[in-house]
Structure formats: structure tokens, C-alpha cells
Amino acid sequence: MKELKAFIVSFIVMFVIANGFSYISYLIRYGNMKRKSVSNDWKKASKALGIRVKKLKKMSKREIKNVYRELAKKHHPDKGGNADKFRNIHEAYEFVFDAVS
Hints:
Layout: H1 2-18, H2 22-30, H3 40-49, H4 53-58, H5 61-75, H6 83-99
């Protein structure tokens, strides 16, 4: 058992030396994070488009465009909708469309 521990420790030391300590700095910086926080932009876009953030990030550009078009038809000021609501939907669409790969 002691030999195994010694081997593991030596392997870790060799790995750290070979990678220039970048892996340890990564673990120190990000190792304690349990989940990523969602930015306010994603939350606002999610609320404006009426879709959860998790689903919104997984959608294709075509699906996002279809959701936007449906909401734009419903809330466009020329069709009797609210201009502020339409502006929020449009800004959310631009943000999500650019952010999704």
C-alpha cells in the first residue's frame, strides 16, 4: 500500500512538473466551483423569450429564430403590441443568437 501511495505521489509530481504547474493553478482557481453561475444576460434573455436558460443554450439557431419570429408577430408595435416588450424580445434574440454556436 505504501508503494502505491509513493507511486501516485511521484506520478503527480512528474505530471505537475511536465505541465508547468498550470493544472494545479487551474484546480486552485476552479476546483471548488460546484456549478457555473448563470449571467444576468442569460436570465434576462430567458425571461424575455419565455424559455429556460438550460434549454435556451441547447437550442439551434433555427429554433431560436422560430421562437423569435412567433414572439415578434405577437408583440410587434405595428400589430398592436407593446414596444418595450418587443424591444426586450429583440435584444434577447440578438444576444442568444450571437452566443449560441
